[in-house]
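Hey everyone, long-time lurker, first post.

I ran two proteins through the pipeline my lab uses and got sequence/structure pairs for each. Pasting them in order. The first:
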Amino acid sequence: MTILQQSQLAAIPSTEHHAHHISNASTGIIYNLRSLPRSVLWILDLGVTDHINSSLDNFATYRIILDIPIKLPNGTIVYANIKGTIIFSTTFILHNILYIPGFNFNLISVSQVAIKFDCSIRFTD
């Protein structure tokens, strides 16, 4: 994985995503982050518009929000009504992670990470 600062890239037009959806789990890389209170599988997902977590135990802080409809890959719609912050390390903290109870995956949105850290992420062999 290569991370490039935005100053190293040519200007790329940005697009705004209004739909919240979860892509097929095969679009990401499974990654095991052991810095959480318990070992949890996370998927770096290229298609998801928001970070998703399935356990309130992983949140450092969270709050109740208005329901956000999430369309799953199988077409089912579920609703997230909690979002919060998860601290992976002192230098890697993610905010606005949506909580979906009973969901089988924890997803990190690659596009949201690129925006937060003002970088481009390139996956290579």
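...and the second, right after it:
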Amino acid sequence: MRLLLTAVLTSVLAITGTVRASDTTTTTPGGPPTILVLGDSLSAAYGFAQADGWVALLQERLRARGLDYAVINAGISGDTTAGGLTRLPALLARHRPALLLIELGANDGLRGLKTAVLRDNLTRMVQLGQAAGSQVLLIGIRLPPNYGAAYERAFQAVFQEVAAAQGVPLVPFLLEGVAEDRGLMQADEIHPTAAAQPRILENVWPVLAPLLGAGQPNND
């Protein structure tokens, strides 16, 4: 089964530093509640227009269903959990998000980061979000078997362990149904295409929808 992350192309995902985010504005007090997506290239719409990415599609779905949220895309291609942990306090202060979606860890895995460090970084980000009053959703990623079965299992388990320990919901695998489909991957074989973005949103939506607030219309 073909998976997202290919060892021979590690440097492509790990060193790309292009910012494709909408986190440069400040949330206006009294405006709609904010959903902050803290991620890497998988959220930053790497290789195609940001308007076609799953984060932008999320904003469109919320609007279409009458759910009054402003989505802030704080995805940066090449980011790691350490980078996200460094960026997060200022983002929380600037946007005061009602919901924080954490989509980081792929680049940590590509670099063979110790899973204990990955766990610590994710835990601290979740705790920062909770301390700021945000509901937190953790988004998992998987590695290919060429990193070794033991590391692959330990890496994947980190997301499950952090979600359970911190009491937050988990999207088990962001690229479920995408990474296995060559037609939904770009030529570099590590980034999904624009055509894959609706499926990625469908992977996130069932876990996100219950967090959107009681009494909101059409939040199924």
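Reply from user beta_strand_b:
Welcome! Quick read of the second one: The chain has one domain: 7-211. The longest strand covers residues 34-39.
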